């Protein structure tokens, strides 16, 4: 047994990165670690969870603790994982079972990462969160436990946006501009210049042939905003579409929970929204004033693993002082009110 047995191992695993934090029951942050993206849909639940072991060991070492040896020697009292690609109940169950097999905690809970964002953005079990990072998703929660969720399986279930969606659309428009199928756009020369290639189509070919890693596609997102600020019509249209997607997710979730006519926290996070690009936020807030005027938007700038850690402390029944200590450990206020 170790002295921090009643603490929390918090995991926030997204499409592009994974954060792990070890937290004592009093809210003391003992250790953190960061790794790459989390993809159980490609690797399987067991393999994806097993891939977290080095991060857990790094956290334990930072806290001066031995890594868990198995179910008989858990590292913490509770493991709280908020995971991207845990979109369906069957996926959550498989991931929870794989986590339990690791023996890192006495108890284990898995939730979609959007619920972690919601918890990071409010201390009330009532609200809606939209995450717009590499992908896009939304979740809402009421104090009685009712939720509003979306399958979030990409185009198959009607989803569009996030950094991945924006980048793919930018390439679609740039390629068509270059070969004459579409109107001219500043995105095409901007993409070519960013990668030192003769054209955006050459960048597409480099990705296809494996000469450049596919993750570099996300570097297009800042180019979209730069071109939009210079007045490019195509880039501006993409940003407007992204704002519309975020707004409609929020509106539908609020409606499902009968919260449209009540002041309700609307927590916004993920890399695209947390960048606080005025063009995107102005378009989003303008739409919300019409479709969800009682929503109270706020942007989370703290690391999303904070939400998982707070959920873990909730599970342990930790006092409010522990929650305050943990928030302070993540370098100040986590909430940035909307303009």
TrEMBL record:
Give TM regions. none
- The answer, when asked if Transferase is one of the entry's keywords, is yes
Query: Is 4Fe-4S set as a keyword in this record?
Result: no
Which positions fall inside the ATPase BadF/BadG/BcrA/BcrD type domain?
11-312
**Alphabetized UniProt keyword annotations:** Kinase, Transferase
One GO molecular function term of this record is: kinase activity
Q: Which Pfam families match?
A: BcrAD_BadFG (PF01869)
Tree of life domain: Bacteria
Q: What is this protein called?
A: N-acetylglucosamine kinase-like BadF-type ATPase
């Amino acid at each position: 047994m170790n002295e921090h047995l009643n603490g929390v191992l918090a995991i926030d695993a997204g499409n592009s990165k994974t954060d792990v934090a070890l937290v004592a029951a009093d809210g003391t942050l003992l250790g953190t670690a960061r790794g790459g993206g989390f993809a159980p849909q490609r690797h399987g639940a067991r393999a994806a969870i097993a891939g977290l072991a080095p991060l857990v060991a790094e956290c334990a070492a930072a806290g001066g603790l031995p890594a868990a040896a198995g179910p008989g020697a858990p590292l913490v009292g509770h493991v709280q994982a908020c995971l991207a690609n845990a979109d369906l109940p069957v996926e959550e169950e498989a991931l929870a079972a794989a986590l339990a097999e690791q023996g890192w905690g006495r108890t284990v809970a898995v939730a979609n990462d959007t619920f972690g964002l919601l918890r990071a953005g409010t201390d009330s079990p009532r609200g809606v969160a939209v995450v717009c990072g590499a992908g896009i998703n939304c979740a809402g929660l009421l104090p009685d436990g009712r939720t509003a969720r979306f399958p979030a399986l990409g185009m198959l279930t009607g989803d569009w946006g996030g950094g991945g969606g924006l980048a793919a659309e930018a390439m679609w428009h740039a390629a068509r501009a270059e070969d004459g199928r579409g109107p001219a756009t500043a995105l095409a020369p901007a993409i070519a210049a960013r990668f030192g290639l003769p054209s955006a189509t050459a960048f597409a070919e480099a990705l296809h042939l494996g000469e450049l890693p596919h993750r570099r596609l996300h570097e297009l997102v800042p180019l979209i905003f730069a071109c939009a600020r210079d007045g490019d019509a195509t880039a501006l249209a993409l940003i407007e579409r992204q704002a519309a997607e975020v707004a409609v997710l929020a509106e539908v979730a609020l409606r499902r929970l009968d919260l449209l006519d009540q002041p309700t926290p609307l927590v916004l996070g993920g890399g695209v929204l947390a960048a606080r690009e005025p063009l995107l936020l102005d378009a989003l807030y303008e739409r919300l004033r019409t479709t969800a005027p009682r929503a109270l938007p706020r942007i989370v700038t703290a690391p999303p693993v904070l939400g998982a850690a707070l959920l873990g402390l909730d599970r342990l029944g930790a006092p409010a002082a522990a929650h305050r200590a943990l928030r302070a450990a993540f370098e100040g206020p986590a909430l940035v009110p909307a303009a």
